[in-house]
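Exam prep: given the inputs below (a chain plus WQD), describe the expected output before reading on.
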Amino acid sequence: MHILVTGGAGYIGSHTSVVLLEAGHEVIIVDNLSNSKIETIDRIKQITKKELIFYQEDVTDEAAVDAIFSNHSFDGVIHFAGFKAVGESVEFPLKYYYNNTVSTMVLAKYCLKYGVKQFVFSSSATVYGENDVPFVETMELLPTTNPYGETKVISERILTDVAKANPDFAVSLLRYFNPVGAHESGLIGEDPQGIPNNLMPYITKVAKGKLEKLRIFGNDYPTPDGTGVRDYIHVMDLAEGHVAALEKLTPGVHVYNLGTGRGISVLELVKTFEEVNGVKVPYEIVGRRPGDIAESYADVSKAKAELGWTAKRGIREMCRDAWRYECGV
Ligand code: NAD
Ligand code: WQD
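Solution:
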């Protein structure tokens, strides 16, 4: 298949492009490089020893998107492009609502114009809000605590309505849990600009001595050790989940959780990271971070039953590969 990968120079998009190329698909990436580097495109080629086409364009720009669609005959689109920093979305809501929802609408519009019928969307477990764990796809979505989360809810609704109005349009809404780790080559991975917001990149930078110590946000949650519990998923498993979703896509809207189904606490992750990599991660316990929930993990039975996909890599591989990437960059 010929697949347009928006945001393909970013963290999850680059790993998914590797898996797509290795599965024999043609990959066309469009990315404005607002949160990624051009080198990643060469790294994807280096890993796969395959060619791909890259456009440096903004997918909210209709003329640019129209031109890309007119140059190719796509079988499907995987839409990763978007902004993802939760805290920044509270400070600059319009920037987030605009980029994340307009990009979705523009891409859906040009899919319809050019007869592209398969659309895979990067959603997030954040759409479940404070539902009880494990999160199941059939749950009613509860308010998220930030504009970023709302952009995912709104984009899911937009795509659902587009599919309702166009019965041959096929949409897969993939709700990612907490992606971590890197390609095992160490050539691509997560490289946030400035001080990381997310736990794993913070841990790797503390272990490397680039940051002094980890601050653990709260140890008074109703969890086994009091720290927050999340469903961390290896980014390569997540990437494989996209290819499974794409290859099984049928008309209508399909929602899938992509996680491992297993909750890990902050302290468990820190201890595993230290043990697997033989390094120290100094930490201190501080107050809760506003907007955080106690627990988030997936019910993964639907993806297993319908896509034949399950996460294969465990927490030790996630820690090993995140560290390998940190040591290479
Ligand atoms: P990322 O920032 O590494 O990748 C996103 C890419 O999109 C970047 O390369 C950026 O330059 C590009 N981009 C942003 N706006 C664009 C635009 N208007 N036009 C063209 N390119 C644009 O983020 P990621 O972690 O790879 O996330 C990918 C997607 O998955 C995002 O939609 C994100 O919201 C979603 N998601 C991420 C996580 C996570 O924890 N990383 C969890 C759930 C969902
Ligand atoms: C994980 C755990 C923190 C940093 C976010 C988004 C979500 C999704 C994934 C995009 C929590 C604790 C963290 C630190 C800590 N992204 N923590 N010290 O908050 O589950 O999810 O990223 O869709 O929408 O909200 O991930 O990695 O920030 O936090 O103690 O320095 O680590 O409190 O329990 P989160 P995270």
